[in-house]
Amino acid sequence: MLYMGVDLGKKRSRIAVLDERGEVYTEVKVPNRKQTFQKFLKHIKEPVEMVCETGNKCFWLADLMQDSGVGVHVAHAYKVKLIAEARTKTDKVDARILAELLKARFIPEVYIPEQDIRTWREIFRGRSHIVRMRTQLYNRIHAILDRYGIEYETQQVRTKGVGSWIETLELPDPIKKSMQQYVQLIQEITEQVTELEKRLKEKIKLDDRARHIVELLESIPGIGWLSALALYLEIVDISRFKSAKKLHKYIGIVPGVHQSGEVHRGGRLTKDGNSLLRWMMVEDAWRAVAKDRYYDNLYERHKRKLGKTRAILPVTRALLYAVYQVWSQEKRYEEIFTVNRKVR
User: Fold this and answer.
1) What angle do CA 325, 331, 332 make, to 5 degrees?
2) DSSP secondary structure, 162-222, as one string
3) Are 15 and 6 in contact (CB under 8 A)?
């Protein structure tokens, strides 16, 4: 068996291959082209396993290697750096170190979903990205109105007649023109969002497993179809997590820990996790507080100690616990949790 480490660069990558004795079988630097990697593999005459770190380029390389019969491992970039530092006394993770860690079976692997899931993930993340762009444009309009002392209701900026309304304002013409451009961009983005959401709904209709999980997750207070689909596309298989706490950690909704001697206290969120799901679940937690008595009571209990903003975090963790139970048991929320749940 041979062990291949690939240090993926922006345009070129370094490949190191070790044999069973840990000696260098070959070591080369190649351009990041599929044909180049395929040509390189033709010179490998023994069974081989490959490892690379997480990054934008790792998945196409993983697909190529799998199609070529190579055993594929994708390492968590941050965790493998810590392991490399502990074993080799260096924080630089190059191709040879990756190969050495693979041979020693010290690779902290990440989950590699099927290509179809990755495709729909990309579409969903694209929708989230342009929605954030739209929000930035709205915020820009609000900032201009505030700067010029214009009194307005927030909803006025989001109505269809906002363009005509802007023309009635006492603002310099160049400012009005800029605001009209923002409005036009917002309208174009909204059309794109609508089209993307239509495609995502088609995905749910055509994929029996996705439809089943989304329908189950929608039964949880505060969670709509978009959040349910995001959970499905990002997690795929809930059995990857042995407990709800593992799911909390994956999403990054756990506090950091500060420890010195006998002093042990929690800190801010680590934010080491899936930022898209973390943002969506916090938003869903606010909706759950507004819709469901249990989550409202939970929020009110923690608000006295944590304050209005941070009190939503225990609610988010509780909501994720519900996600874990509903998905793991494949039962609707009301089948698992009683109506009169007690706040602990």
Assistant:
1) 95
2) HHHHHHTS---HHHHHHHHHHHHHHHHHHHHHHHHHHHHHHHHHH-HHHHHHHHHHTTSTT
3) yes
d(CA 161, CA 290): 30
pLDDT tens-digit readout, 117-150: 999 999 999 999 999 999 999 999 999 999 999 9
pLDDT digits (tens, 9 = 90+) for 53-109: 998 889 999 999 999 999 999 999 888 888 887 766 454 678 999 999 999 999 999
Gap between the Cα atoms of 341 and 36, Å rounded: 60
Band of residue 262 on the pLDDT scale cut at 50, 70, 90: very low
User: Between the CA of residue 62 and those of 5, 36, 54, 108, what are the distances in Å?
Assistant: 12, 14, 10, 16
- Residues 311, 299: contact at Cβ < 8 Å? yes
Q: What is the mean pLDDT of residues 227-248?
A: 96
Report the predicted TM-score, pTM, of the whole model to 2 decimal places.
Answer: 0.85
What does DSSP say about strands 24-31 and 71-75: parallel, antiparallel, or unpaired? unpaired
Q: Which two tokens stand for residue 219?
A: 């039964």
In the chain the first and final C-alpha atoms are separated, in Å, by 54
Closest CA to 70 of 42, 50, 99: 50
Q: Which amino acid would we find at residue 198?
A: K
Longest dimension (CA), the chain: 79
Q: Residue 324: name the closest of 258, 267, 262, 243 by CA.
A: 243
Which residue bears the tokens 């494949």? Answer: 330
